[in-house]
Amino acid sequence: MQNFSIPQTISSTQKQIFAFGLLAVVVFFSCLLGIFTRPLSYFSFFWPSNALLLGLLIRFPSLKSFGGILGAFFGYMGADLVTDNTFLMTLGLTLSNFVAVFSGLFFFNFARAKLPASNNNVSELYPHIIAVTLGCFFGALFAILLLPNLPHTFMLKENRWIDFFTWWSGEILNAVIVLPLILAAPGWSKFKKLINNQYAKETQIQDILPFFALLISIACTHIFYGPGALLYPLAALIWAAASYQLFNLALINSLVCLTLYHSVTGLFIDQVNSSYLTTIISIRVGLIILGLATLILCVISQNRNQLYREVLYLANHDSLTETLNRRSFTQLSEKALKHKNNHSLSLIMLDIDDFKKMNDQYGHYVGDRALQHLSNIVKSNLRDHDLFCRIGGEEFIILLNNNNLNKTQRIAERIRMCIEHQALNLENLEPIHFTVSMGVSHTHLPTNLPLQDLIIQADQALYQAKMQGRNRVILAS
């Protein structure tokens, strides 16, 4: 989860003003949303402002300034005052919210500093879970110690502990709904890239099935509502967690939690008493577990998919040059020979000239860097669907689809000249120049020639290039 900051090109005063204005507006309107969703002027159904503020301060550390804090304070105070709350009660609620947010931020930084670094992305959730749990705890504790002593309070001293658990569970649920949206949201450049990829990618029916399953389960919570409705979307959420990226899953998770919360609490909203509060706490805890478990499952699924992609990549590529290995190249080339859209196929074999002398003169480290240098040059001159493989040692092979022989020869000559003229630059060494010899074979498709015969033809042409003085391209006869 990436951190961002305010651009450094603006002055310190402008940063303070920006932080003040942004947090004042965000907190003010998010508080109004919470105030307008209070059932019967009691605890808010949904109070996003604390989780939203905590998420912004975690993701945008530059907002944690005097101007930002002052803006958040005015946002909290302004929202309550314009909705006819008393000044003392507004101040008490604002201080309670501040305790929740900034104690949560403190425990987040503390946990992130103390917990050992890990490659497991699930461990990245631990500081956030600790921050939300303890921040909401201290915010609720501060509220029940302060608010019952204020005039015109809605908290009674004899009910303070049930109010504590109501406040605490509500704040944690708000965080489960809001915080992942803030922390997992892609940056603007990544967002544009995702949109472009989505337009380029053809939508498959299996991509939207989990979402439709969730819509059906959400509809069922309104039709067959009751305490058991908490379990209606469970299977669909598991399906979505295994199918979607974290931000998309966070959006779905928030929608499901809010819908379930509204459906189930609607059964008890006319019973504002201790029984109602106990029921609401139970519902909130169930939703917290459901939402958090779904998010953790999504992270685990993404870890598994990433590990699978890494293992598959390592199994199919040479570890030094990141080109295809022989086995993978053979499989993909056999498919290319049989593909109905391919009309011709060209193979280019290339070999670094006098590579053994380079290793003897400079050492194997320089030899490895030369192989990497060559592979980078070749890749920059190929199309995305062309195949490039390190057969072994200093020998490579390229497969080009649907190029005529003249075009293939021009590509080979361009690669040869680029390698000849782009020196390998290493620290503490003079620029190292080297050359390659290349052999080309070509056939029209379909063909009865097996792949191995085409490789033999290119290899024989490469041998002729070596015999004729190296640093040249020879076409197979």
UniProtKB/TrEMBL annotation:
Its EC number is 2.7.7.65. SMART domains: GGDEF (SM00267). PANTHER family: DIGUANYLATE CYCLASE DGCM-RELATED, REGULATORY COMPONENTS OF SENSORY TRANSDUCTION SYSTEM. The chain crosses the membrane at residues 17-36, 56-76, 88-108, 128-147, 168-188, 208-234, 246-264, 276-300. It catalyses: 2 GTP = 3',3'-c-di-GMP + 2 diphosphate. It holds the Pfam family GGDEF. This is diguanylate cyclase. InterPro entries: Diguanylate_Cyclase, GGDEF_dom, MASE1, Nucleotide_cyclase, Rev_trsase/Diguanyl_cyclase. Keywords: Cell membrane, Membrane, Transmembrane, Transmembrane helix. Residues 343-477 form the GGDEF domain. It is found in: Cell membrane. It is a multi-pass membrane protein. It comes from the Bacteria.
